Amino acid sequence: MSTAAPLEQETVPLSRTSAGREVPPARERARGWRSAEDPIIGWTGAVAVTLLAFFLRVWRLGTPHQFSFDETYYAKDAWSLLNNGYVRAYVDEADRTILNGQTTGLWKDEPSMIVHPEVGKWLIALGEKAFGMDPFGWRVAAAVVGSLMVLLMCRFVRRVTGSTALGLVGGLLLSFDGLHLVLSRLGLLDIFLAFFLLCGVHCIVADRAWFRDRLDRRTSASSSGWGARVLWRPWLVAAGVSFGLAIGTKWTALYPLAAFGVLVWLWSAGARRSHGVRWATAKSALLDGVPAFFSLVLVALVVYVASWGGWLAHAAEYEQSTLSDSQFTQYGGGKQWPTATEPDATGLGEVTQSLRSLAHYHHDVYMFHAHFLNDSTHIYASKPSGWLLMNRPVGVDAQLDIQPGTQGCEAPPGSNCLRQVLLLGNPILWWGGCLALLFAVAMWAGARDWRFGVAVVGVASTWLPWLLYDDRPIFIFYAICCLPFVVLAITLTMGKLIGSSRAPSPRRTAGVTVAGSFFVLVLVNFAWFWPIWTDVLLTHAEWVNRIWFKRWI
Length: 553
Description:
Elements: H1 26-31, H2 39-58, H3 71-84, E1 88-90, H4 94-99, E2 107-111, H5 119-131, H6 135-161, H7 164-175, H8 178-183, H9 190-218, H10 234-247, H11 254-274, H12 280-306, H13 309-313, H14 315-324, H15 348-371, E3 394-402, E4 417-423, H16 427-447, H17 450-463, H18 483-498, H19 506-533, E5 538-539, H20 540-546
């Protein structure tokens, strides 16, 4: 009686590329390109790009010396959080009082009905704590976070592409965009939202490689038909923290959280399929989807609720305001919160009571966003369908009719000078990005290149939901959350144009020429629009040369 030799696990290539080369097995593909290029060079270059971005953002940061656009809400809310632990209503003429140097005695007794979460305002408060309640103080946090976002962009693109050079190009492109520059120089919330979203997506992309590596190490011939179990995924927990902070800045982060959560499941299923697991999509929904939900969504929920700590600690003030102040009931149909008339609880009951009050508060704020702005108008409102084409910028600040001989104006007789801060993206970057996104859709759908899918899903989840709300005043600078993924699409397209081979060839020469020319055009465009992004004095003729379309006025 003979005994058959034990079967050895055999690795079989899954398919062939369009060039006829065999696709490497899962074990080799899981290794990625972690050691492909020198990390010291990568980090040194990224830090250098970040320092350049910081210089551009902190230069004359305190001008204009006034509350610009919605800074009047967020900067003052942040100051109240810092001094009171929650947002209190301000006295009349508070803006003028603050700009005159008086920063105390500004508040009324009752809390204020704020309509955005508090994470971004706490970050603004850190700048005010460090540098004072003045324009530099309430803008410096945005400058720091905007610069850190450039660093994150360098590392994100490098992680996706495996190229240090493309990573640095991605960081520079982000740095040279007008929306990013201006929002990094204002005390608004959107730059913080974009930063945390990019951080969350970066962690999810890192989890993809980490999960495949762990799956490869643990999968063997003796594994069950489900494949190895990988329950602890630290990068997903980090992503959950980042998304929690993003939602704690603005609720719109819920859409990319949902979209990339689905992508996590599909990527996990694809990893299992590459190891021969049958019905991988269905099995992964249970084996990977459930743990990922806890790591990503529930962690985000915990972080989000914790970000309301100041509000929860002063829930009693809000509860009492529903009894005496109509601003807390107008959006909820005039109904008082049930917690307002309940006896004050203690211990765990007090926590529960405060959370219930927070839930009622969220209901009223949601009603405000969903219904009470529908009939409003704003001179700078724009349709989201045209955001990626830079259809309608936002005038943040303007000093018009500066006469010759004043403030350094050297306009010819009969003309004048002006200063302006315009929330407008770099047109060359965004228009080129639209073409790159079309290419990304083709590469994701046709070549099934997951990297292009990150760009497509990122733009879709941060842009398309706004089409549901185009009957209310919304603004082009909300597209700042799309920008990192537009830049990713551009850098991936550049990589395809240049090719992976370093050997000289006509194709590589043409690709480098096209990609390099585009980068130079973006840089030249950045220099050209710099004055209308940074409040620089211009003659009227110089200003007109930069306003390419009537709808930009």
